[in-house]
Specification:
single chain; 386 residues; alpha/beta; Rossmann fold; 2 domains; 7-stranded mixed beta sheet; 5-stranded mixed beta sheet; 14 helices; 17 strands
């Protein structure tokens, strides 16, 4: 028997899928092609202007259709509420009818864009439970029951997702570790978007993804206005003076290796904008990932003399003391920044707030220049204590 709140096994999901098929579910995106125009008769009229983002694009077609393309992950056709799905749509384009309701959001960092657009109500199902949210509005929605926990990305509650008539699942690239989940969701009629905002090379490229969600939610003007205001603030930081100090940004995974950002990633870009110098200037693994894992010996060789260490808490959890850091690797005791007390840690809220990247740049600059408030309070960084 399938429990209402239990996570379904793949076998149980197959049973649910069979019942869905018997009930007459339509196309994989839940759309029915009727008397729509021929796709080949529609023409591209314009493309959404993007100043920094390179991982997506939006093309406006005749009759109000818009094609959303995400680098390496898929194409989606936004169908206006009063328009039919075009006939002859290529198999690699998934139709999405507006307005999109009851979204299952498993890409945690995207919630900040929904908040900025006053659209958290569009998310009915969460891949993060209430105690995992650092965005107050999301946490409140979970606690009030207006947003429901539907299982994490690798173990979704298929029955709940189906019963809530989920119109879209938004996943991070972590879904590639569980490809069977995406397959089952699509078989149940739930289209799946894999968003790649964290793969942008420029911090404003990541922030510009608010325009993607603006188009998706029918709030293009609000998204444009928000981005322009935030971009102006970040661009003003471009004139910060160079400090000549080097910075290492990292965390140590369960296997004892150091995970660092590639040199062209948006984090090293922020370090440079803050007046610092990323300690690994030419790091590239040749794959599509934004990070590189290296042995502690290799990390020691490259970062031992860094002026500043920033520990990334988004994966491994926050640290409060130097002792906690050294428990992860005693080698770190020889690092210059450990000896001088310039070891900092990001807050867990950082990953969930991509619209706050300008504040992080300001934090890094203040740390590099010693301009830290007497109470030590910064937006996203805190110093590790002895």
């Amino acid at each position: 028997m399938i429990m209402r709140r239990g996570f379904l096994t793949m076998a149980a999901a197959a049973v649910l899928l069979f019942s869905v098929l018997l009930s007459g579910c339509s196309s994989p995106a839940g759309q029915t092609v009727s008397d729509g125009p021929e796709w080949s008769s529609l023409s591209a009229e314009s493309e959404l202007p993007l100043r920094y983002a390179a991982q997506f694009k939006v093309t406006e077609y005749t009759e109000g259709y818009r094609l959303l393309e995400i680098e390496m992950t898929g194409k989606f056709l936004l169908v206006p509420e009063d328009k039919p799905v075009p006939k002859g749509l290529p198999d690699d384009i998934v139709p999405l009818r507006q307005p999109i309701r009851n979204i299952y959001l498993a890409a945690t960092s995207a919630m900040d864009f929904f908040r900025a657009l006053d659209s958290i109500g569009a998310v009915r199902l969460s891949g993060t439970d209430a105690d995992g949210w650092y965005i107050p509005e999301a946490k409140e929605a979970m606690e009030s029951g207006t947003m429901l926990f539907a299982g994490k990305y690798s173990a979704p509650d298929y029955e709940l997702i189906h019963s809530e008539k989920c119109g879209l699942a938004i996943e991070s690239t972590m879904i590639y570790h569980s490809p069977e989940v995406r397959e089952q969701l699509e078989k149940l009629g739930v289209p799946v978007i894999v968003e790649r905002s964290s793969y942008e090379e420029h911090p404003l490229g990541r922030m510009e993804w608010i325009k993607f969600y603006g188009v998706l939610l029918g709030k293009e003007e609000e998204a444009e206005k928000f981005f322009d205001a935030e971009a102006a603030g970040v661009e003003a930081l471009a004139g910060l003076p160079e400090t000549g100090k080097t910075v290492a940004f990292f965390y140590i995974n369960a296997g004892g290796t150091a995970n660092v950002r590639k040199s062209r990633d948006y984090v090293p870009q922020m370090i440079r904008m803050a007046g610092g110098e990323y300690v690994f200037p030419d790091l590239d693994s040749g794959n599509a990932l934004s990070t590189v894992s290296m042995t502690m010996e290799a990390f020691y060789d490259g970062a031992k003399n860094a002026d500043l260490l920033i520990y990334n808490s988004t994966i491994d959890g926050e640290l409060r003391t130097v002792e906690e850091l050294l428990q992860k690797s005693p080698l770190l005791s020889d690092f210059k920044a450990v000896k001088t007390g310039d070891v900092w840690c990001t807050g867990r809220n950082l990953f969930q707030e991509p619209t706050g990247l300008g504040k992080l740049i300001g934090d890094i600059h203040r740390v590099l220049t010693g301009d830290v408030p007497d109470d030590g309070n910064l937006s996203y960084l805190h110093r590790l204590t002895d």
